[in-house]
Amino acid sequence: MVHQQRSAARLSSFSDTSDAEDIVTLLAPRLAYFAGVARTEHVTRAAQEMQVPQSTLSRALVRLEEDLGVQLFARRGRTVALTPAGRTFLASVERALAEIERAAEEVRADADPAVGKVAFGFLHTLGAETVPGLIHAFRADHPRVRFSLVQNYGEAMLERLRAGELDLCLTSPVPDAPDLVARRLDEQKLRLVVPADHRLASRRRVRLAEAADETFVTLEPGYGMRRITDDLCREAGFKPRIAFEGEEAETLRGLVAAGLGVALLPPPAVPRPGVVELTVTAPRAVREIGVAWLAGHVDTPPVAAFKKFLLSRRGRLLPD
Fold first, then answer.
1. Which pLDDT does position 53 carry in this prediction?
2. Half-sphere exposure of 206 toward its Cβ, with a 13 Å CA cutoff?
3. I need a surface site. Which of 52, 179, 246, 296 has the fewest CB within 10 A?
4. Of 310, 320, 271, which Cα lies nearest the Cα of 289?
5. Is the pLDDT of residue 306 over 90?
6. How much helix, strand and coil, in percent to the nearest 5, is found in the chain?
């Protein structure tokens, strides 16, 4: 009776406090002990196999039954047998322990210097040529390292970095935030992209101010290239008139080819018909590309190796 009252009080405390977490904290260390005894049906033998004192094992089982308020074993001297409640509980415990072991193996594999995984984010405009070339070069010395690749715009990648979903990301502009570490790696010249039949299409170079009266197509607010476009136009003395906003540079090139405006964009991986790409002589039209990671985060060996590789590519990150 006292035992039942004690168990009921303990379970009532759990339900009053929130407290699946409390229950897990109390029960988790005892589950492996329970499974070991259930497998051998002998406390002494289980203690020997798990290399723990028999007294520790016995106390853990008693506390587990008290915390659950259920008898899991029928005791017969030194041997034990599962009760019906014990058999039900064992099935769930074995699944839980197997899942924990699977997760442990997965994180160990991800941290393995030879075959681990790097969660790597990058801008859409770096996906066609730059990133494949980087990974190919890195894997010459680390052939079995795996990558989880994420393409997105800069702010979204930084949020995923903060959430622990990414280890590293290539972004632009290079972020300046107290919770992040960022290093400039390279810069990329930007072009004024105009339709093939545009009044400026016969030129090779142009001052951005010469496009002050043009309609622009740009990336949406929040994208790094949109911020750079607005800043460069402001520096050239005008505010761009925006006709269309998109999410990918190649979509914008298609809009330019259709005669719907002009755009400031990084060079394409493959030349696009229907447009002409002009060098901007003033203001200096470039975007900086940098690598960022979470401050204070401890790198796994494969992440540390890839970070070192990226930093070694300063000034030659981008293809010629």
1. 87
2. 22
3. 296
4. 310
5. yes
6. 45, 25, 30
